[in-house]
Amino acid sequence: MSRPLRVVHFSTTPLAGMPLRLVAALARHAGLDARLVDTTRFGLFGQDVVFDETPKLALALAETADVIHLHNYLALDSKAFAPLDFAALARRGAAVVRQFHSTPALVAGTMGIPVSELLADPLPALVIAQYPERLYPRAWVVPNFVPEDEPGYLPADGPPAVDVFFSHTKTVGAFEDRWNTKAAPETAALLGQLGRARGVTCDIVTGLPLAEALARKSRARIVIDDLASGSYHLTGLEGLALAKPVLAFLDGRCLELLAAFAGTPRCPFVNVRLEDAGPVLRALLDDPEAADAVGLAGRDWLTSHFSAKTRVAYYLEAYERLLRDPASLRRQPALALDRAAARFFAVALPEAIHAARRETHLAATGHPSPPFATGRDFRPWRYSQKSHFAAMDPPPELAFRDAGLADLKHYQHLLAWHVLSSSLPAGARVLEIGGGVSPLGRALAGRFAYTNLDPLAGTGNGPTGLPANHPGRLVRAALGDFSSQLPDAGFDAVVSVSALEHVPEDPEVWRALAADLARLARPGGLHLHLLDVVAKPDGPWTCGFLPYLLARLGRQDELTPFAAIAADPDWHHLSRAAYERNWLPVTGIPFAAFGRAFSWNLSFTAEELTPEPDAVPGHAPAAAMARDAVAALALPEILRRTPLPAIRLATPSLNQAPFLAAALDSVLSQNYPALSYVVLDGGSTDGSAAIIRRAAPHLAAWRSRPDAGHYPAVAEGLAGSDAAICGWLNADDLLHPQALLKVADAFLSAPAVRWITGRPTAFDAAGCVTWVRPDLPAWSPEVFYDGDFRAFIQQESTFFSRELWQAAGAGFDPDFPLAGDFDLWLRFFKLTRLTTVDRLIGGYRRHGSNRAVVLHEQYMAEVTHSLCRHRPHFFPAKEV
Question: What pTM was computed for the model?
Fold first, then answer.
C-alpha cells in the first residue's frame, strides 16, 4: 500500500482520553493516517473530529478508511453515527475491529443487551491489558499508555504543593463492582482521617480538563490511583510519567499482564490495598527522600519499558492480523485463559478475595442485613448513598452501568430489586405503580407474580403507548382510581419508582392516593416508594405527597435533616454527566440551576398506613403538615447565609416524666445552632431529674429543686441571657420539626415584628398530631373582649423579642398562676400587635391531666379577671 494505512476510530464516550491519545501515538510513532470521531463534544480530554459539528467530514473519513476501530459500546449495527453504517462499510471492504475498555457487564448494560450476546459477537476484538482483560477470553490484549515525553507529562520543577493527589470519575464506592470505581468515598474518607490526624494535605478532583488535572497532579508528592479493583488506570500511568510514587492495588493477574507487556517483572506501582494504605502513605510522607526515589524509579520504568513509542507496536500487529487474516486476531497464546487453573487464578481467586473484602466492608459500615426493616428502622436506606451500591447484587436485567452516566432510576431499580428479592419469597405478589416497561419490571416478573399499575399517560416522561413486550400483568389505571382489577389486600408488596412525586399538589388527591395505597397490600405487606427529590441552589424540593405520607405515618420529623444531606460525603445524586445526557433534553435547565436529584426511599407496612373511613380523621392535619414541611425545607439553606438570631427557650417542669423526654427531644433535635435552652425542674419525684441529666450536655443550664411555681420558673429561665428571641415550652408539649428555624425566619423576614405565633395545633398523649386549626386566626384584643377564646393564643407556638419581654415587665403577674400567659399577651398587646404566621411551630399535648383542662373553671376565672384589669387601656372611653 503506497499511502499510509488509514485508521478511523469511533467513540461515544471519552474513555479517559485513551482513544485520542492512541490516535495521536499511531500518527506520531507509526506514521499512520489515524483520526478519531466522537459523537459529540465531551470536553475534558480534547477531541479531533466531532460528528455533531462536522458530520460530512466524519462520513468522508469513514468511506476512505482501511480500518474502522470501534470503542466500547459500538458494534456493527450501532446507529450512534447514523446515517453512517458500519456493517455496510465492512461489506465494502473496510476491516472493522472493536476495543473494550470496561467490563462486559458495564458495556452490555449500557448497550441494553445480555452479557452472553456481547461475548458471542464474532467481530474481532481488542481489550485493554488491565482488569477487564480476563473477562473477554477471546479478545487480543493491548496495553494502555500515556505520551510520557510530551510537556504535560514531564516531571515538575520545584517542591510539591500538596501531599496527595487523587482523581476519580465515579462517585460510588469500592465494592459495587470490580472495575468501575476507584474507591472514591473510601479513599476520600482515608485521606480525611490522615488530614485530621496528621495534617496531610490532599487534592481530590473530578471532572477537570486533562491539562488542568495533569498540572495539579504534578504539584503533589504522592498520587493515588485505585486501591480496590486489583488493577491500575491511566491516572496511575500519568503519575508514573510525572515521577510520583503511585499507590495502586494490583492482583496476581494484573501483575502477570504488566510483566508480559513491560518485559520485566519489576512493578512500578506501590502495590497496596485500601485497607493498608494509611501506614504506607504516612511512611512515604515521613521520608520525602524515599518518596522522590520511588517516583523517579517509576518514571524510569515507564520510559524504559512502557513508552508510547513501543506500545503502539501491539496495535500495529493487531491491524496487520486484521487485514491479513481476521480470524488470527484472537487471544495471544501466552495470555490465554482456556485452562481451568489459569481461569481460577485470573478470575475465580481475585473475585473470591474481592467478595470477602466486600462482606467485611458491609459489616464495618453497618448496612442492615435482609430481610429489611420498615418504618423508622429503614433509616439507613432513607436516601440514596454511594455505599448502598456495595450491598446490591443485581440480576442480569439490571446489570451495572457506568454510575457516572446512569440515570437516577438505575440506583432506584437496584434498591427496589435488592429490598424485594431479599424480603419476599419467589412467586410473591408484587404490584408496581407506574414504571411502564422498565428493567425493574422485567426483573420482578422473572421472580414474582408481577402486576404493573400504569395508565400509560406519559406522566413524568413515562410511556404513552401499550408495549408489546410488557412483563407480567398490566392494569391500565392510575393510583387513586380504586381499580376493581386490583383486589383489596391483594399484594405482598407495593412498590413505586420515580412515580409518586408527579402527583398534583392537591390534598384531596393525596387523600385518595393514600386510601388506594392503604387498601392494596395484604396484612403485613410491604410498601416501598422511591421518590425523586432535588437539592436545588435555593433549597431542597419535593412534592407535597411525600411529607403528607410521612405525616399520615406519624414520621413527619424524618424530613428534618433533608437540607443537610448534601454535606454527607456518602450522598449519591444524579451526576452532571448523567443529567446532561438524560435529563437536560427534557428539562432544558442547566445542571447548576436545576440542582442535584437524588432518591428519597420510604418504606412501611400495610399496618402503618391503614385504610381510613370516609371522614379520614388524620387527613386534614397531615395535609397541613405536608404544606408546612415543603415550605420549611429551604430554611436551613437560606439561614446558613445569614447570622442566626439567638433564641432563649425555657422548659418548666414538675413531675412530667412521662412526657419530658419527648419535649426535650423535640427541642434539641431542632439542631438550631444559636439556641440557649434551659430546663427548670421544680423538685420532681418521678425520675425527671435523671431524664434532664442525660440531656445536660446539650443544655445551657438546668436545675431540679423546689421553686415558686410554673410562671416564676419560666421567668427565671428567660433571665440570664441576652438572646434576641424568647419563648418557653411546657414539659408536656412539643415543637414541630424545624420550628426554631421557622421562628428565626419569621423575625428575619420582618425586622419590625416583635412577637409571632403560628397556626395552632394539638398532639395526643402519644405525641401524634390530632388537630391543626383550619383557619389562620388574626389575633387582637378585640377578639378576646368579644368573647372569642377559640384555642386562645397558643403559647407553644408563640415567641417574642427580648426587648418586648423587658418592656412588658420581664415577668408574670402572680395574680394569674394558671393564666399567666394570657395576661402576658394582653400586656404585649399594649405595646405592639401580634403577627400570625402560617407555620406549624409548637403544639399542645392533650393527655387528660393538663392543668388548663383539670382546672378549667379556675383558668377561665383568671382570664376574666385579666380582661377586666386591662379593659381601661384598650377601651378607655367605656365604663369599667
Answer: 0.70
